[in-house]
From TrEMBL:
Single GO MF annotation: catalytic activity
Protein name (Swiss-Prot/TrEMBL): EAL domain-containing protein
Keywords: Membrane, Transmembrane, Transmembrane helix
Domain EAL stretches: 19-268
Amino acid sequence: GRNTYAIFGSHMDELLQKRRRLEDDLREAVASGIQIQTFYQPVFSLDDGKVASFEALARWMHPRQGFISPEIFIPLAEEMGLIHEVGTLVLRDVCKLLFELPAIRVAINVSVLELSSPGYALRVIGTLAASHIDPNRLEIELTESLPVDKDGHFINNVASLRAAGVSFAIDDFGTGYASFSRVQTIDADRIKIDKSFVDDMDKADNKAIVMAIISMARAKGLKITAEGVETEAQRAALQKLGCDDLQGFLLSRPLSEAAVHLLVKGPERR
Ligand code: C2E
Ligand code: CA
Ligand code: CA
Ligand code: CA
């Protein structure tokens, strides 16, 4: 009835206003740069248990609301056309870290929108060159959220980056558009098995899916990372099934830049 509509209407108004404020705040955060920070989650090799690489993860430290999850602000940045600026901020942090720690490799998350924009590959290659960083030390994780246009800038960007030495991983493998057809489209080097399959690996169904993914990936010569590993039982099962690398809270949470320095170099002597 009429009253219900009025209540619904004012609630919508409130939501819209909240959203507009968040959009304004994000525009400001991206422009100033300092509120957007980069954390790094170590990825461990199952062979020797050592850190194989780090995944760069964007963080938004909002001045009044505190930490806002990338699950919220990355999709917002994509809708607002700000994802390119966020990607630039993260890449700048990553290049600084790669320069300071010459032994490490880092993976960045890149949205289909960025990879579909003209000149993206050249910008990344230029940024790496300006910091004298070997492109082999950078991996791009392609997130699953959008379909790709196989003839446009996307394919050209991927080809240029691959030619320069940047490697590619399919993120959240097994969900959305992240499938073997996408592996073929970008000639990926690696798949990252989505956390949803790693959860409940003790259930026969999920274990069968993970086994099938791993054997197909092996047959295609792909490297395999399992993400979201939280329990010792999952770690043991994934090791048995033949994953290459593991990532998850069991092994390490995402770390600040300072913590990465400590982990890689050990405590500095004075
Ligand atoms: P993702 O690429 O799948 O990243 C893994 C997410 O899982 C991260 O969340 C990480 O903190 C979390 N995680 C890792 N291990 C565990 C675990 O054992 N248990 C649980 N419950 N979670 C775990 P985060 O940092 O909140 O990032 C969320 C998503 O936001 C990322 O998912 C990625 O798709 C996106 N994202 C983050 N940074 C960037 C960025 O710089 N650019 C773009 N385009 N997307 C980004
Ligand atoms: Ca990722
Ligand atoms: Ca993922
Ligand atoms: Ca994800």
